Amino acid sequence: METIKKDNFVFCVDIEKTREYYVSNTLCDCYGCRNLYEQIKTLSEKLSYFLSEFGIDICRPDESSYVEIDNYVDYLFIGYTVTGWIETEGIYETDIEDFHIKISKGDTPYDWFPNEQKEPCFFVSVEGISLPWVLNEPFPDAVRFIDRVKAFFNKK
Could you tell me if 137 and 31 are in contact, meaning their C-beta atoms sit under 8 angstroms apart? Predict the structure, then answer.
């Protein structure tokens, strides 16, 4: 276990188990996620570095929620899990460039996203990602936001 301190928060992280998890977790094959996978590696060195401190592979999120708008995909959040626990109460929040990060024990509405983590874990959500459509396939017909939310809740 490694201790990571950010502001007044203390995180106990098993970086090796987190890295192993990201090598083996299943990736979603929907078009929004595939569009994200194509671009996220080069999105932000600072964000990638921040996530890697916890053992997170930025290219392998557990979950994302998004809406399509005019050849762009606006990601409401991108979710990751970390093997370990948070010793501090509350939600850690910070901004890196134009991205907002929340780290919590499961205290926010986005923290229940499906994951394949078998060990105790906590959750990292990244907000503020909007990416152009780059897949070599037609841009999907925009799905109504309410339909996207209903589909997301039905995954449980």
Answer: yes
